[in-house]
Amino acid sequence: MHIFLRAPVLAFCQKCGNSVKPHTVCSNCGFYKGAEVIDVLKKLTKKERKLKEKEMAAKAGEKEKPLSMEELSKK
User: Which contacts (CB < 8 Å, 24+ apart) does range 21-28 have?
Assistant: First the structure.
């Protein structure tokens, strides 16, 4: 009998980009297949909620950055 360990298969969350197991809800943002399933901020304390909101806003701001013609022409 051959016993070995397999590397875990991970996917990336569409909303926040965190690594998650396939077919599971993201524990960071609570989204699954583009829909919010769990309200992650509901369980947090007031201080933790503010930090989480800032973190989510920062990630959203990074993705909205418009591309210039120079960046598009890079190979």
Answer: none
Residue in this structure with the two tokens 């992650």, named with its chain if needed: 40
pTM for the structure as a whole: 0.51
Residue type, 32: Y
10-residue block means of pLDDT along the chain (75 residues)? 84 86 88 84 79 80 68 72
Beta bridge partners of 12: 19
Give the Cα-Cα-Cα angle 13, 19, 4 (nearest 5 degrees).
135
- The CA distance from 16 to 2, in Å, is 38
Which CA distances in Å does 31 have to 10, 13, 26, 28, 75? Answer: 16, 8, 6, 8, 34
Report the residue count for the chain.
Answer: 75
